[in-house]
Amino acid sequence: MSSNVKPGYVRPVDFRRGIVDLAHGGGGRAMSQLIDELFRREFDNPWLDQGNDNALLARPEGRLVMATDSHVVSPLFFPGGDIGSLSVHGTLNDVAMSGARPVALSAGFILEEGFPLADLRRIVQSMAAAARDAGVPVVTGDTKVVERGKGDGVFINTTGIGVVPEGVHLSGDRARPGDAILVNGTLGDHGVAILSQREGLSFGTGIVSDSAALHGLVADMLANAPGLRCLRDPTRGGLAATLNELARQSQVGLVVEEDALPVREEVKAACELLGLDPLYVANEGKLVAICPSGEVEAVLGALRAHPLGRDAAVIGRVVEDPHHFVRMETSFGGARNVDWLAGEQLPRIC
Amino acid sequence: MKYVDEFRDGRLARRLAAAIAEETRSDRRYHIMEFCGGHTHAISRYGLRDLLPDTIRFIHGPGCPVCVLPIGCIDNAIEIARHPDTVLCTYGDTLRVPASGGISLLKAKAAGADVRMVYSAMDALALAERHPEREVVFFAIGFETTTPPTAVVVQAAEARGLTNFSVFCNHVLTPAAIQNILESPEVRELGTVPLDAFIGPSHVSAVIGSRPYEYFAEEYQKPVVISGFEPLDVLQSVLMLVRQLNEGRFEVENQFIRAVNRDGNRQAQRRVAEVFELRKSSEWRGLGEVPYGALRIRERYRDFDAEHRFALRYRSVADAKACECGAILRGLKQPWDCKVFGTVCTPENPIGSCMVSAEGACSAYYTYGRFRDGRAGQPTREEVIHVQ
């Protein structure tokens, strides 16, 4: 006897010509379908396959660390990455700066009505690839859609948790006078790669974003130099902002040597033309490390042995200073402040 | 980086500094005004003060286009930006200059006005072409360096028959400002501002040549060296001025032979003369009314003059009482002589325009030189109340 119930047919999501509409965030079949055909398929892990609104994780041994980061980058695609890979690297690095091994990520998407599904798929695929490479699953997520004109294509929030190994105590307040300051490579690559794509600033450059997950590098550093005091990734506001944060947290002064700062020639040239200072330009695959002077060689060795630390350099030292200033010794033998950035970096006029 | 590193060579800098130290006399001071904010910035950013003997004193001049913009002009620009369907385009730093009522172009933008930063006047023109339904206004500011490009866009707008593009012209002139300083009572009679020599801006002279300075050098007996903006340029210029002063000469010398000659860029001068004419008098922040110190658009190009199109009326507005920008721009005071410097007035929350632009003396001192006097504390309650 044949049933009267018709077999359900759902037309697959049109990832070639389709666009995001309000139904994709409405909680109905369209949303469920987008989750199944895009997010669950690409991120591909048992937590998402369970289909719950949460992810059940076994309690790991040790102290937990948690960090969150929202990504609103424009343009969405840039040389060396896109908002997807950036949203994975950004949060993983915030977790990794505690010395932790990251264990899981969440992802919240805010999509603008009308956004091409082809672009969304490209972003999610890139995000999934970044998470896979890092060995950290995206275990839970959320999707909302806002009306046209109320978003900028896609915003992505990611949250990460990680486990800090026994005996590791990294914190921005632990720098002491006499310590050394290091970076793992060239400064300003990400910011200049983004700027080169912005409307009205079209300039050709071979610079690609340095966006990368740093927890592997951090693990190597800690294995070589257990006395490491602080790590921080100099993202927005660049190296200048990070150094000022560390100086204030640790109640010390920092002195950097201009000649020791690794900056690519192309980045220098772009900054020169645009009236910017590479010290204030964002990075996405860089870290600042502070360690006791006795461990400099160990940290530098670990950095340079890793592909993400080949251009590592010692850039300065920690000093006593009641005002917690960051100072630079210029190539000229002069000295100056390296201040926080005031507002956005705006070019000078004439 | 080629053509940049050569002019930032630390070894050469130390040799120049040694020559300056050797040639300066210990029984006198050398008061040198670097007219242009670009030089102020270079001196601070590269820490040049540390290389020079104490007998060299820099006086920071008013050559920062953002710093000399009076509040009234910014008020006018904000008024334009608030018109419906209007886009106001301008150069970067201008966005932060405080106007009346604690607002700025940046704040007007946050409140809904369409204000955009452009790198070139041509970008504003291109925007007008792409959006015929919008009124596009270019808020033109700057000294002689940025004036020719503005002249070019006005002529291009006419040639392309654009009806939705205009220019709010606030271009100002270097020689008029220098003359104003030299004529000020503090310099001429009272002697409160000792002023021995000038470092002249090379980019201005790339347009106007070095000839316009010959009159000052002669009339006021002050040597002038037209200098480039790289740190080695500045050091070499200081050495040239020290030599002139030691030898009792007062000539116009050209350090920036890479791009400056006596006559300047004739074609640029012609374009500027075609589009602009002198304003009889105009307000400058710090200097007050300066005769023949600014430009306006000629009657012939009236259709592209935003002052005409928006029927703007200029209203002069006094600076905040505690702000010493005026005295600093005239060389009467140093940034830290100002009560609010580094306390209430900071780059995040500028009270006066000298704290806005990277070229402003206050901003340069705050950003690069603050560790020297250690005044980084929070404002006291009294200071906050005083300013409000």
Helical content of chain B, roughly? Answer: 25-40%
Contiguous runs where pLDDT drops below 50 for at least 5 residues of chain B: 374-388
Distance between the termini of chain A: 86 Å
Class of secondary structure makeup of chain B: alpha/beta
What is the name of the CATH class of the largest domain in chain A?
Answer: Alpha Beta
Oligomeric form: heterodimer
- Give the helix/strand class of chain A: alpha+beta
The percent range for helix content of chain A is 25-40%
CATH topology of the largest domain in chain B: Rossmann fold
Biggest sheet of chain A, in brief?
7 strands, mixed
Estimated radius of gyration of chain A: 22 Å
**β-strand amount of chain B:** 15-25%
The side-by-side strand order for the widest beta sheet of chain B comes to 2-1-7-8-9
Determine the number of helices of chain A (DSSP H or I, runs of at least 4 residues).
9
Strand content of chain A: 15-25%
CATH class designation of the largest domain in chain B? Alpha Beta
